[in-house]
């Protein structure tokens, strides 16, 4: 996973950064893991800030139009529960989501997702900092004491007792010097999802994961793409998968793909430009070859290309694929996963799925790093190998990690403990009080 940093020279910059606020818990990143972490910490009694570089919550779900939200159930059994499921219920209540049984995949309306996420965060008493990019930190000994955010006010510092990194790319952990997992060059691909209107949604084969082992991409279109691809040049693609947004006639298309390390700005910039070109190529092919798309028009490309995989921390423990697939339980299990190991290839059209023996477990030790006594990591940057993370990375399970990180941070605030000394029995019982399912 190369970063393309060409350093011509270094300049020194000394600046006074005003400290604008102090919190018990500062959560960086307002994606599925981050906004749930902030709610969990606030409900645990902590004074919480949530930092988000965009002007809305939801991360990949809303900024990259990644749908559906996968998955809450193992077969018929709800496995990811508590605050994440409360969020889904609130969405369903306003007509913003629909559950697909028995797996518990959620089709949702992105704008209603943003609304309910922000309502729940504000109701919990969390202070939101939108349009604020985490750009730095200050340490006192091995404790992070402040983060630096940059926004229209300039650079600002926020003091905190505990920090939760939910940036997806482990931005805070990386900047603070946490060791990262060695990355192979085979990162899962980046994808720019696009939204179409004017679609005959009733006749379109929508994505579903309702049966294990069945892949719901558009098989007919796939065959056409394979034929065209074998004749000449076609941009990289996967699927294609189509997902509704709760409105008739509108659909999200997941099919572009390319290799990119999206945690490197040069690669991310090139990727955005290239995949935008590809969207227009695929749109014409879809209109020509799929009857349901005959009158389709492009509403929008996602504001940001979706990132499946970048940095992950090397935590106190690294979750291994075999034990995860076997559904091994741990004394410090704090969350679950039930999506298959789902690995997309960056240099081909392939997707490799491996199904779990049962609903799996994630231990608390994967959310903390050695010698970082006040840092937790929620979301896809947690400490896992490429196999287990390829399952846990989906939205329901990262919400579960957020819930655990937030609850743990709140307990640390009340006891004053370092994150590696948290009372695990109390943490598990607190999570179960939130509604989490940590038993079979
Ligand atoms: C193409 C694609 C298809 C997928 N398909 C599915 C699917 O079908 N079902 C499913 O459930 N999941 C799917 N996923 C996976 C899922 O969307 C992500 O793994 C999940 O959103 C990760 O959640 P997160 O909270 O860890 O990070 P993110 O969702 O990435 O959220 C991180 C948040 O942090 C913010 N942030 C990042 N850096 C900074 C910074 N420096 N300062 C301030 N804010 C920052 C971001 O703006 C964002 O809001 C897919 C992903 C992709 C890319």
UniProtKB/TrEMBL annotation:
List the SUPFAM superfamilies hit by this protein, alphabetically.
Answer: FAD/NAD(P)-binding domain
Q: Where are the transmembrane segments?
A: none
Tell me the InterPro entries matching this sequence.
FAD/NAD-bd_sf, HdrA-like
Record's keyword terms, sorted: 4Fe-4S, Iron, Iron-sulfur, Metal-binding, Oxidoreductase
Q: Which Gene3D superfamilies match?
A: FAD/NAD(P)-binding domain (3.50.50.60)
Protein name (Swiss-Prot/TrEMBL):
FAD-dependent oxidoreductase
Give the signal peptide, or none: none
Please report the organism this UniProt entry assigns to the protein. Answer: Albibacterium profundi
